[in-house]
Amino acid sequence: MEVGTLTGRGRGLYLSLLLSLISIGALLYYTWEEDTLASLELLNPWGLMSAFLLVLCLWLVEGFRIIFLLKAVGSTVQLPLFFSSRVFLITFFCAGITPWALGEWPAHILALSRQNVPPGEAAAATLLRSLYTKALFVVLSGFIIFFSGSLGVKASTGRIFQGAFLAVAISSFAYFLVILKPGMVVFLLSLLQRFALTRHLYEGNKGVARFLRTLLSETRRFRTSLKHVWRRGPLWLFLPLFFSILYWLLYFSIAPVILWSFGMDPPYLIAISWQVMIFLILSYVPLPGGSGAAEFSAATLFVSFVPSPFIGIFIAAWRFFTYYLTLFFGGLAFFSFIRHHR
Asked: What pTM was estimated for this model as a whole?
C-alpha cells in the first residue's frame, strides 16, 4: 500500500491545514480586542490538562470499542488495547484528510486486516461501528429537533440540520438492512459476476479473476460474521454501543471543559446539542475534516454564550483538542504503519 492511496499524496492534509489556519486566523483577526488578552489571564491550565486527558481517554475508549466489535462479529483475533487504539488513530487520520471522510472505511478495514483480522470480518466490524455511530446521532438529532425551540436554533440552521438528519437516518436504515440481511451483498456480487459485460472484463485475466474469487470469499465471510452478531447475544451488542456512547460523551465534553478552564459556565446540554448539529452537517461537507466549515459553524453557534473577544481563541483550542491533536498522532501512526507494512 502506498501513502498516496489514502492521503491523496498529502493534498487532503495540506488543504485541511490551510483551510483551518485561514478560518481560525480570520476569527482571531475579527474578534481580537483588549479583553482578549485579559481573558487569557483567567486561563486555568488544569482545565486544558483535563481536555488533553479527555483526548487520551477517547483513544482508549475507541480501542475498547474496536475490541468488542471484533468479538461481536465472532472474530478469533484478540487485539491488545495498544494496537486497537492505533487502528483508531490510523482511521481518524485517513478520514480527516479525505473529502466526506471517504478514507475512513478503507483505512479501518486495512488496518484491521494487517492485524491478522480477515478482511470479511474487518468489513463487518467496520459496518457495525458505523451503524452504532449513525444510530446514536439519529437518536440525539431527534431529541434536538423536538426541543429545537428551547435551544435557540435559527430557522435556516434548523432546516439544514433537518436535511442532514434525514440523510443520516436513511443511511442508518440501509446499514441496518445489510446487517439484518447480509446475504444480499453476496447475492449482488455473485449476480454481478454472471453478467456478460462484467464477465468479459475478467475472463482471460488470471489476476483479476483471482481477485474476484477472493472478494467473493471474503464477502461470504462478511455475511457469516454479521449473522454471528445476532447469535452472540445482547451483551456483545450492548458493549460496543456502551463504548460508542461513552466516546461521543467524552468528545462533546471537551468544548465545555475548555470554556470552564477560562472561567465560564456554559450550558452543558446546549453545548453538546450544538456540537451534534455541527458534526452531523459537516459529515456532508466535501472538505477534508470539514476544515473551514467547522470553525465558522461553531463560531456562529457558540457566540451566543461565548464572549465575542474570546470566540476566536475558543474555536482554536476546540479544534486543537477535538481534531488536530488526534490527527497529528494519527498521522504518526499511519506513516509508521505504512513503513512497517510496505
From this structure: 0.84
